[in-house]
Amino acid sequence: MSSTHLHRADLRSGGAYLPGIDGLRAIAVLAVIIFHIEFLGFLPGGFTGVDMFFVISGYVISRSLSERVDWPLATLLLDFYRRRLLRIVPALLVMLLACVLLSAMLVPPVWLSNQNEETGLAAFLGLSNLVLAWQSDTYFSPRAEFNPYLHTWSLGVEEQFYLVFPGVFLLWLRYRERSVAARYLLAALAAASLAVCMIQTRSEPLAAFYLLPGRFWELAAGALLFQLIGQGERAPQRAAVAVLMLGVGLAMVAAGFVLADARQFPFPWALLTVAGTLLLIAGVVHRPYGSGSPLHRLLACSLSTYLGRLSYSLYLWHWPVAVFLRWTVGLESVAVQWIYAPLVLGLAAASYHGVERPLRRGLPSLRQRPGFTVASILGVVGMSTGLGIWVANNTEHLSLSRVADSYTWHAYKHYPREPIEPIEDPALQGRQLFVLGDSHTAAYRTMLNIVSLRLGIEVVEYERGGCAVVSLLAADPPACRAWRDAALADIRARAKPGDVVFLASLRMPELAGRDWQGDEKAVFAQALGEHTAQKAQEARAAADVVLTPLQAAGLTVLIDAPAPVFKAPANRCSDVFNRMNPVCAPGLTVERDRVLQLRAPQMHLLTVLAREYPMLKVWDPLPILCPGATCSVYDTDAQPLFADADHLSGHGNRVLEPSFTQFLIRLYHPL
Hints:
Rossmann fold, transferase, acyltransferase, 671 residues, 27 helices, SGNH, elongated, Acyltransferase_3, mainly alpha
């Protein structure tokens, strides 16, 4: 049925509740939940349930607007935003405020959570998708698993869609019979969005996934379906067609749940789910008289429709509950998995019956004064955002985690609390220290700050996570080559002969994340086996590329020998509420002999390099960090030397600083 054959009377005559739509919402939210908790790896493409929601939303919003087509424009728009805000905002704010508080109490600011605060505060304003698109992690990255606000990206997309869509759709409702532009504007925008999606999936995958331009077509698809079929008809002759649409649509959606490839998403895999959802909606709308087919009855049964009504609250709560459980006790145990489902269901029911439903259906003043309602909700959003900012700024005071003590745990550039005795030495005047490497360069910030204050030298840092320089393990990462070369060029331009270049990077095989449940000796053997002759040759070549020009420039190069690494991260295993987490089971100690064995190949290469490059010096922090037979993330006073499984803590920096300072003085003195 074309849009020109859809009369205004048809548009306004419907409005009856379609229980099957709630049944579809139930399918969508259950798929997303099963995917997010990785239940038996059952639905590897379950994230496409969000795409189902987009299509359903587009259809339902169109249906709602069509029923008010004769209202004055200002009244219609105010009422639309009143209903949307009441539908989305109150339950969202409750969830966000709970997450902000729980995050402050349970999740300290560490590498895995350092993007959470920014995402959470943006979520109050419906902008979290923009923040996530600008970050470097994908929706499927490990760090995303610890962001309790990650799922709000889809709400941001919908909210931004609502700013554009009503005007476009109202043009179609009122002028489609008189204007070709009004008739086909939405279809043109959807086609343009699909083209953007296709291009961005390859060139800018984060933008394609998180931003409205690459997702508009999915919501618009539901609206275009409404333009095609309207409220639908209950005609006996459509029974077989409706059943066929349901069957084919369900098969397509199920295929998306199982087969969708995150590496090629949204395009082309979202097409499968969007097309399947369109068929499902059409099958529900054109349901036959009476009880209908078994599929119709299943979608319309009381359990399906109740879960569908809960779907928004289920979506809001399922992800943060998983995040907080994953961070604290872990999600791996059967007991926790049994707790997860009723906990999420209980929170969703409380949200729906205690927040969503009363505000949407009660309080006549909220319906009769839409302008006041919109202004009030926006005011509450502003106050809630302010409260969220206050909580975020007072995390150290609210936290129950010892890791929240950033002075002890984090290698930030804290101004030292202890008095710093400056060292007056003419050999140090005008000297510079250039520091280059990966995140382990950043893990020396506290020490470097103290050194700068004590010696009066300028410290210039070049750091990029994942970009090891002279790792001694293998070739330096190719993706970091341009950054590394630019940093080296800048150093050569700024440095004077005799200045020191400190190359600080991870130079040990990581132990965290390995399977420690079996034979420990076999795991260590595997780690040692990763150091092959080929990798040793590549590591040597990478070192030559860096050391040769620095020596030619008359600069002294300082390399830190490999420090201990551990099997579990200290910052996730140091509180009473997370020590039982399975990630902590391997423990926070490692035998010193194992560390020496793991670093033997790197130490051998350092010895070779030091013979060939007279300007190369090696500083070894191992004797200080591990003075006994067992290396521990804690010192004898139970203070953390390491922040996680391999990065130094702030306290560890202060422990190492005297040794590093004296080593630097010896380097500068002969000059």
